[in-house]
């Protein structure tokens, strides 16, 4: 399915490289259409599982991953806003403050489409906290101002619980550029990209998952509002 022309696309994720795996092909497609795209990255990923090669300190990793994100953004012609939260702490942050900071970005960019994780299906606590905060903010917006919510789910239960994606974009023409974007996040992806070059079942499935299509689910904010009232 082809992407539609948008006034502005806003992506809100917690970590550098979150955008690279699930949506970078779509980002580049939007940019080729002339659509402004902004990535609000909540943390610098300083608690990432991989600490670089050669290894670096957590403080240095924060600076390294910020630089990697900026390079990835350059490759995609993407605007990046860092919100300066600490990695792996979002579920413990002041919820009002987190929502306020997210609201500021939404008010500033006025997106017609907003991409974030699908709550309950995004595996990592930071992913879940981000998704919940975003939906809380959108739920409080005037209905006429709300962006179309396009969510990413990758929990192993996704297809059983949510069914087939409601939006699936063919990104095969962006496959090589997406590899370059992933490679820009070298501290986190170097080993993975080496594995993807091997002839294994894992690498075959990963190449299909990341370099052929990107999957999204449209989300009705009224479902979230109803859930919060339960």
From TrEMBL:
Transmembrane parts of this sequence: none
Pfam families: PIG-L (PF02585)
Gene Ontology MF annotations: hydrolase activity, acting on carbon-nitrogen (but not peptide) bonds, in linear amides
Species name: Nosocomiicoccus ampullae
Name of the molecule in the record: Bacillithiol biosynthesis deacetylase BshB2
InterPro entries linked: BshB2 (IPR023841), GlcNAc_PI_deacetylase-related (IPR003737), LmbE-like_dom_sf (IPR024078)
Highest taxon above the source species: Bacteria
